[in-house]
Amino acid sequence: MSNEHGNLIKSPKQLIIMVFASFFVPLIIILLLMVFVNNGKRGDSSATTEQLIKPVAQLNFQGAASGPRDPQSGEQVYKAVCAACHATGAAGAPKFGDTAAWAPRIAKGYDALLTSVLKGKNAMPARGGSLPADVSDYELGRAVVYMANASGGKLPEPKAPAAK
Fold first, then answer.
1. CA-to-CA distance for 74 and 141, rounded, in angstroms?
2. Element of type H or E holding 65
């Protein structure tokens, strides 16, 4: 058998050159590709980065303890705090507008009703479950008058507290 095709590498010097070339040529190609890809994204990277690190939610403290607010009406407080139980009669709460259930309570007077609301009674938690920062005593008093008067009572609207 004859060697028609000769070896490409004929000396040790050529072997060393081929080993280095086979290692460094792909490394240089990869490096150039990385530079090319990064240059293409540089113009849009600030907008993309802003979108990636954008917060999921933002807090808005506007209006929260920033100053005096208008007191809520009795109806607003009823809908926000009281209606959960008094609209359905849950846990033995007298239903809104039920004259028979409210009559003995109204007979005790406004102060007794307000005390029951502020301290809690039976299954009803103190303040109807609201926080003093959310609903003031005056607003709860307005809700008491609203519910009592809708159920046959004739309680006068409580006087607004003096401004601080």
1. 8
2. none
Question: Residues 71, 76, 81, 85: what is their CA dihedral angle, to the nearest 10 degrees?
Answer: 150
pLDDT digits (tens, 9 = 90+) for 110-132: 888 888 888 888 888 888 877 77
Q: Give the residues across from 121 on adjacent strands.
A: 124
- DSSP letter at 121 equals B
The three-class DSSP label of residue 124 is: strand
* HEC profile of 51-89: HHCCCCCCCCCCCCCCCCCCCCCHHHHHHHHHHHHHCCC
CATH class of the structural domain 74-150: mainly alpha
**What would the pLDDT profile of 51-108 be if each residue is shown by its tens digit?**
777 766 666 666 555 566 778 887 888 888 888 888 888 778 888 888 888 888 888 8
| Domain range summary for the chain, segments of one domain joined by + | 12-52, 74-150
